[in-house]
Amino acid sequence: MGPNTSDEGFHPDLRRHARFLPQQLVSARTVPILRALQGLPGLRRPRGVEVVSLGSGVRVRVHRPSVAATRTPALLWIHGGGYVMGCAQQDDRLCRRFAHKLGIVVAAVDYRLAPEHPYPEPLEDCYSALRWLADQPGVDSTRVAIGGGSAGGGLAAALALLVRDRGPITPILQLLTYPMLDDRTVAAAEVADYYRLWNVRSNLWGWASYLGNADPEVAVPARCADLTGTAPAWIGVGSYDLFHGEDLAYAERLRSAGVGCTVQVVDGAFHAFDLIAPSAPVSRSFFASQCDSLRTAFAIPDI
After folding, report:
1. Which of 53, 80, 121, 297 is 20 to 30 A away from residue 209, measured at CA?
2. How many other C-beta atoms lie within 10 A of the C-beta of residue 190?
3. Which is the catalytic residue, given 183, 241, 247, 274?
């Protein structure tokens, strides 16, 4: 679907971008092209980024702060892409910002992608990366957070449930940025003109690819009957995001289960707005809210 000329209702900082963004970017037809483009040379590894291959074959990209204490807090970051595309490298800039702003170690995991690798393989990759990160000598294992955007946020929520049941790590926070949490949204969501990049059709295909033959009652975070005992959460989402309703519903269920949850809704913001317009004031404010949540969880002094 082509660009949209109407920008009515979008946040003022995002109207220009919304005018030219498609409602749907990801589909079964476009993913091979997008993956091929993603693999082209040109995105060189930034200075200071370590790429580590784990025993399971999973790779992580490690971002360290410019000045670090002996043992620092750490964040496992999980990239988005609808479970079907994307890579850890796409979030290098964001991970570096977290590392330098907060003085923490950030490890971004390159999990295997659906449909070639459906549930539970991507989730198990994230679990392996989390255990590796918590075991690093420079990391304070009592202050490890998990986070991600879009499908990465969905995997972070699923990981929070997995480690609650399996251990041995107790994350201090789950940072869920417009997380993809509920496969049932494809049936309940309205077809809205203001969706950008990810719409109902994208969601239908993404979830089908990820779930494969898995039981949704087991694999989908929003379908989990018991959310008690999971890590406290920060959830951020735009009001013009397909995931807006499911994210607020999940936040309410976390609170009802006795789990602390901070919610930030950005009026008039579309999906992944902060990655599309990272320098916009609304995006900078969104990032600052995430940093504040991590700083509080890690008990880092606000200098």
Report:
1. 53
2. 8
3. 241
Give Cα separations from 45 to 194, 262, 291 (angstroms).
35, 34, 24
- Whole-number pLDDT of residue 237: 98
Please tell me the distance from the alpha carbon of residue 2 to that of residue 25, in angstroms, as a whole number.
Answer: 9
- pLDDT at 135 > cutoff 60: yes
Domains of the chain: which residue ranges? 15-36+47-297
pLDDT for residue 264 is more than 90: yes
CATH of 15-36+47-297, one of 3.20.20.70, 3.40.50.1820, 3.40.50.1100, 1.10.490.160: 3.40.50.1820
Annotated catalytic residue 271: yes
pTM reported for the whole predicted model: 0.93
Asked whether residue 1 carries a pLDDT value surpassing 60, the answer given is no
Over the range 93-122, which residues count as b (16 or more CB within 10 Å of their CB) and which as e? ebbbbbbbbbbbbbbbbbbebbbebbbbbb
Q: How confident is the model at residue 238, as a pLDDT?
A: 97
Catalytic site residue 79?
no
**100 in active site:** no
Residue 45 has pLDDT above 70, yes or no: no
